[in-house]
Amino acid sequence: MLALQFTMPEWNFSLTPFIIGVLFGMALFLGGLADPDKIIGTLRLKDLHAMRTIFVFVLVGMLGTWILKLAGHANLDVKSATMATIVIGGALLGAGFGMTGYCPGTGLACAAAGRFDALITVLGMFAGAAGFIWIYPTIVEPILALEQYDFGKITIPEYFGVQDNQYVQYGLVPTIFVAGMLLLFLTRPRQERPAPDYAPKMPVRPQPTVESPVRPRQVEITPQTDMPEKRNEPWEIDEGEDLPDVQEEENL
User: pLDDT, tens digit, for every residue of 131-177?
Assistant: First the structure.
């Protein structure tokens, strides 16, 4: 007999990543990033709501990571800066982002909320991951071998050689955070808000109406040519016509 043996992987459930994932999904919905129309509007530079929200996420995450690192509770694992793969991968992600209106995070969150288009997007992500595994030996590995475009595991302060400067260590991140928040505040969309109910209502004065002057109507009189011309001719009196007595009228 043929005996089949299956080895189940060890399942280690951690509550912290689960809570962080739930909070992240809630933040996506509350921030409006779960709406694909917002994403498409941002990519078309017509509605910058999603871009501003992502910028807030980046600023807050940068400040929080910096504080945790100073407190010794965060250990950063910097990825290798392979520029060729970053450019190609970013172009593919941007194309899928623009066609579907979902990124991997928003796609999973909206699929969990029951959106059918998001579910199709998630299935497409799994298909893309399978395709990446299939082409990895023949296409991806040669691209990864481009060492001249690989900067290694390096940060921006390390690239400029200022990682040991105290002003950079303790002042760069807060400065970027304050400048970014100030920029968001100054470029916020201005909308007229209705006055609250408790605000005193000012009496509205009637505006005087200016009456337009009445212009006289112009009537054009055209001479009538079909009237008979008056001639100075003597009156002709018929003999049988009774004429009034002029003397009797004078006596009256």
Answer: 888 888 888 777 777 766 678 888 888 888 888 888 888 899 999 99
Name residue, tokens 């109406």. Answer: 209
Whether residues 65 and 184 share a domain: the answer is yes
pLDDT for the residue numbered 140: 76
CA dihedral 23, 155, 48, 179 (to 10 degrees): 100
Are both 30 and 72 inside the same structural domain? yes
Helix then strand then coil, % of the chain, to nearest 5: 55, 0, 45
Q: State whether the Cα torsion 43-49-50-55 is positive or negative.
A: positive
Q: Give phi and psi for 212, each to the nearest 5.
A: -75, 140
DSSP letter for each residue of 103-159: -HHHHHHHHHTT-HHHHHHHHHHHHHHHHHHHHIIIIIHHHHT-GGGB--S--HHHH
- 82 with 140, same domain? yes
In a domain, 202, yes or no: no
- Give the structural domain span for 87: 78-154
Q: Residues 85-103: pLDDT tens digits?
A: 888 888 988 898 888 888 8
Domain assignment present for residue 240? The answer is no
pLDDT at 246 over 60: no
Q: Do 107 and 122 touch, CB atoms closer than 8 A?
A: yes
End-to-end CA gap in the chain: 157
> What is the total count of domains within the chain?
2
In three-state secondary structure terms, 82 is strand
